[in-house]
Amino acid sequence: MQIISYCTQEVIKNAAKALIDGFLVAFPTETVYGLGADATHEMAVSRIYSVKGRPIGHPLIVHISSAKHIDKWAIDVPEYAVDLAKEFWPGPMTLVLKRSNLAKDFITGGQDNVGLRVPNHPVAIELLKEFEMQGGLGVAGPSANKFSAVSPTSASAVEEEIGADLVIGDLILDGGRCSIGVESTILDCTQKYPIILRPGQVTHEEIEKCIGVKIDLRYSKSEIRVSGLLESHYSPKAKVVLDVEPNPGVGFIAMENIPTPQGAIRLGSPKTIQEYAFNIYAALRSGDKKKLTEIVVIQPSGGGLAVAIRERLGKAAQK
Ligand code: TXA
Ligand code: MG
Description:
The chain has helices at about 10-20, 40-50, 70-75, 80-90, 105-110, 120-135, 155-160, 205-210, 275-290, 305-315, and strands spanning about 1-5, 25, 35-40, 60-65, 95-100, 115, 140, 170-175, 185-190, 195-200, 240, 250-255, 265-270, 295. The protein is α/β, with parallel strands linked by helices and about 325 residues long. Strands 1-8-2-3-7-4-6-5-9-10 form a ten-stranded mixed β-sheet, with helices on both faces. Strands 11-14-12-13 form a four-stranded parallel β-sheet, covered by helices on one side. Helix 1 packs across helix 6. The chain is globular and about 60 Å long. The two termini are about 30 Å apart. The model has no long low-confidence stretch (mean pLDDT about 95). The site of threonylcarbamoyladenylate has 27 residues, from strand 5 and strand 6. Magnesium ion binds next to loops.
């Protein structure tokens, strides 16, 4: 395995070739780092599962360079999904659509639908374009962490998580820190109106504004299985406890205006919600590096990205 810091055109070409040849390429996106494999290559995709320690049967998001390629992977795409793609791609939104024959069971977990996303990061876009130039059709990309652990938002976090499980020929592309820091909004688009399966930076208000109808927020309404919907997820090794006064020696993450309680070890002090999302996974990781056994997190209030942060923290605390 090799980590590459300067993603020149030559590097991108080699990385695309590595994908075509069945190797894994971890790549930056604006949300979190993905662990990429050719989404039509069953052996390569099966390595994603073994490297992540992810149970078989959990579906993978397929990344494409542009909405033009939706029809390769999906059929019966509703008009509202086309509108959403136009508005929010490239960007932090995944659309779950009825699958075409290209989306095999090893990608969809045997379900009749497929998750698609066009990421908004120059390295990801260049990689996808080059991969498509070399004959590729889509890159399967779950977050590049061990199953149920914290998603990586930097190349060094990818290396810490899965570096030991990668082999010669696999690559980690370093594109700096992910600008958003929490995973994409996932929308079930297999019904009359979209249903939010996982909140993210694209908010339900923005989705409603785009499609002109009120949408359902009850995640349970969807019949679709999402591994991130398991109760425990996004967890560091330390126990995460929400919204309590920490004891001395315990890690502490809260907005900057909340003072550090006596004896607590401050791990994060974001000034804004954007900064909260940008830092939260790195802050949780830093607690593990300090070998803390417990981290208290004071959740951010409000709508928008704060909804996504609270959803992730709720799961991180369910250990
Ligand atoms: O921001 C993101 O979405 C990142 C970057 C790398 O694109 N990817 C990501 O992938 O978060 P992952 O696998 O860690 O989380 C995607 C979630 C999983 O819970 C998976 O089960 C669900 O999306 N998912 C993928 N395809 C699906 C499908 N066809 N139907 C329902 N859920 C799906
Ligand atoms: Mg994940």
